[in-house]
Amino acid sequence: MHEAPSRHFDIAIIGGGFAGVYCAQQILKRLGGEKLRVGIIASENHMVFQPMLPEVVGGSLSPQHVVNPIRMICEAADVLKGEVTALDLESRVLTLDGGRFTPNVTVTFDHLMLAPGAGVDLSRIPGMSEHAYLMRTVGDAMKLRAAIISRMEEANLITKHQQRKEMLSFVVVGGGYSGVETAGQIQDLIAGVLRYYDNIRPDEPSVTVVHSGERVLGMLGPRLGDYTRECLEKMGVKLIFQKRVRAVTARTVQLNDGTTIPTSLVVCTVGNAPNPILVTLGEKGQLPLERGKVVVEATGQVKGLDKVWAAGDCASFPKADGGLCPETAQFAMRQGALIGHNIISALQNKPLKPFKFTGLGELATIGHRKAVAMVLGLRFSGLLAWFMWRSVYLMKLPGLDRKLRVMAEWTFELFFPRDINLLTPSFSSPLGEMHLEKGDSLFRSGEPAQSLYAVKKGCVEITDASGQLVKAARAGEHFGERALLGDGIWRFDATATEPSELVAIDGDTFKTLANSIGSLGSLFRSTAQQYHLPEEILQTVNAIPEATRLSTAADVMTRNIASLTCTQTVQDAVAEFQAHPHSTYPVTDAGKVIGLLRRSIAYDWLKNHGLTCRDQLQDLPLTTPFCVRSDMPVPELVQTLMRSGVSKAVVVDAENYLLGMVTVFDLLKGAAA
């Protein structure tokens, strides 16, 4: 077993967004000469400047310019990249999954800042999670941009007008900031590149926004909301108000009024959900939640808890002038900075400050060099608001290098056409192929299990802690299901004994298949029984009376068994089924076992070859028998049965002549005696 690495932080911050990073920066700034360990735990090693993600979709910005490495903007902090899989506030310990090749990391802490952001749940709308593109990460934006250009390339090859229209129908769900900005950027991208596609007519591409409210950007008031609608409509964006998406298919979006919109690409900007880790803590009573969000005081401290703080999208943070803070960057960054200040104050036994920020205003770009803004109660729109939007967000970008890069790229975009290169980013696939040379280790006991493996070529041996062979997986066989169905930890070692080709199926995909398809789930639960630890086998052996343990397979087997010969016909087999009903029957040739006949195989053969056929059993697809030698000691027999995952074995002599059969029940009868 490999020991999991451990860390201890005086201040642990979960989340690498605005709240988490600004909290860390404030703490590091106020630490001075104090020696305190500050840790940032984030699922990515960079902070995403999310307000600029739509610009990545539209090609106005490169993806690398809207992210900042957390290690570079918080140099004195210890950054751990991984997913928090367990959190215990009472014991002040969390568990971190760092990836496929890393054992789980245990982290203890004194102060804890919770800023993991919100989760996403699209399951309430059938088909949304399977077919919709999201806009939460840089990878999402890159993937969406690649998909749009890919649709343009495909439509350019289609000769029929209606098919091109359906191929180029893009639907954005949600009329908030992200939905409006994304729709505007998609429309701008299409307008900017359309002249390079000779076969696509200007009236064929379409962008549609489906919004459940009365107007887009309702938080900015009626005037700016109506202005935004007018601008989007002039650009060519279609707006559907007071309608909800009922279902999404591969080629349509279905609304709750029965309307169907043909489309090949759907972008979902709604569906925020409580963070699952925080929900689990709330259910345990360790964390106060209100509508899935952590309830905090005006100081940022979680209500009723000592040394636990929360901010950002996951927190129900009170606003200074009443109500709750909106889930925007300007509030998250100031909440984080306040908590950083208050954590140091708490360590120094100084009074804590309440959150007093009430907001400077709101801005949203709507494409085509237009934006809307409400700043300090004043409303702006058009080109002036667009310059304000770019200026404000340019100043908010952390780091001088990022500011200069973005400013240069925006400047070039004013004079040069948009890039239409189709650079499809590589995203994690549920399936992956790998090659192993002889002696290569695939995994070791104690490591986290990430995949189910299927062998295409070669052989991988699964061995237990004592080095004893558990299974030799060859072409057509699989392994890994026990760990994935259990605690997610490998209990065995896997090593290639020859050059091998494997297919790895992602663990989440495996679980989805196993839970969705009953027969697959039953199969995997059955084959998982092959992987028994030595102590489990020893426990079973010790439960058998000593007299039975000292005997052999020949002593406990059933000698008078129903068997068939290879020259008998299918009708002879059916007669034997009726006389001696069993599930399987040994088939012999001159007394030697050559296979097993299953009743189901014989019946299928008759259905496919005619009920009156006189085919001999040697012509049927016999199952390879599981044979054991008659002199095999019972402890070894128990281990063999448990490790093979079978409940019965054919007992043969040294020359493979049939002697009898032994089952688990034979051993149980011995135990009962």
Automatic annotation (TrEMBL):
Q: Which UniProt keywords apply?
A: CBS domain, FAD, Flavoprotein, NAD, Oxidoreductase
> Which residue numbers delimit the CBS domain?
557-613, 621-673
Q: Which residues form the Cyclic nucleotide-binding domain?
A: 431-513
Q: Which SMART domains match?
A: CBS, cNMP
Please name the GO terms that the record assigns under molecular function. NADH dehydrogenase activity
PROSITE patterns the record matches: CBS, CNMP_BINDING_3
Family from the record: Belongs to the NADH dehydrogenase family.
Name recorded for this polypeptide:
NADH dehydrogenase
